[in-house]
Amino acid sequence: MDVLARNNVKVSGPTDGPPLVLAHGFGCDSAMWRHVVPAFENSHRVVLFDHTGAGASDLSAYDPVRHSRLEGYASDVVEILQALELPPVRFVGHSVSAMIGLLAAVDRPELFERLVLVGPSPRYIDDEGYHGGFAQAEIDELLVTMDDNYLGWSAHIAPMIMGVPERPELGEELTSSFCRTDPDIARRFARTTFLSDNRSDLPRVRTPSLVVQCRDDVIAPMAVGEYVHEHLPNSDMVVLDVTGHCPNLSAPDQLVSAVEAWFDAA
What we know:
Blueprint: H1 3-6, E1 10-12, E2 19-23, H2 37-40, E3 45-48, H3 70-84, E4 89-94, H4 96-107, E5 112-118, H5 136-148, H6 150-162, H7 168-180, H8 183-194, E6 209-216, H9 222-231, E7 235-243, H10 247-250, H11 252-265
Parallel strand pairs: 2-3, 2-4, 4-5, 5-6, 6-7
Antiparallel strand pairs: 1-3
């Protein structure tokens, strides 16, 4: 199977610009970066893609075994980079894609120049000495609700994730994105995402990294971003004055400014 077709890979920008890969989060697709791309495509070789099972990716390529772990998605990312034959990339991963990119960089560090982790969480469930933001029972209930009524769950949870009730159109957009995703694949990806625990992978990363934390984020609270920064070698952290989990939609200018400043400081 052609890897670039499998993941609906799109490339824009100058061929001699540093490659910038933008990876979307759960329930989303590459269109979620449309407010960010224009800031970079004059200076960077911008790569967009849809995770297997999302957006315009080839749904037949979804493997319930391979994609039952985030490592399977990380392998997809590595295959995309190999197919494009790019120099080491600047990888920007939103939400679960932060961990997917991190895992890919652990596996193939030579493919990555820098990592930008937007709203990362190595574990969503609270544990002894660790605040992930959710009790086990809350995640169990979330997954059961998804199984029983995925569309209803999407309409309820998307505005909460977006976190900007004064801009209901953004919550509606995220709801629509969730609803465009194949429900069976979305339910499996939710389990892969919300039951993951990648805390032990953080110290293995050697790629310079930026943790981008939103001030008030119900999915990845401040304590989680601080934990990632503390346990991730060679990392910096920036806090955006933003509520919600999707600054790429709700505050793209702030996100772009933070990323550009970090790139420029390198």
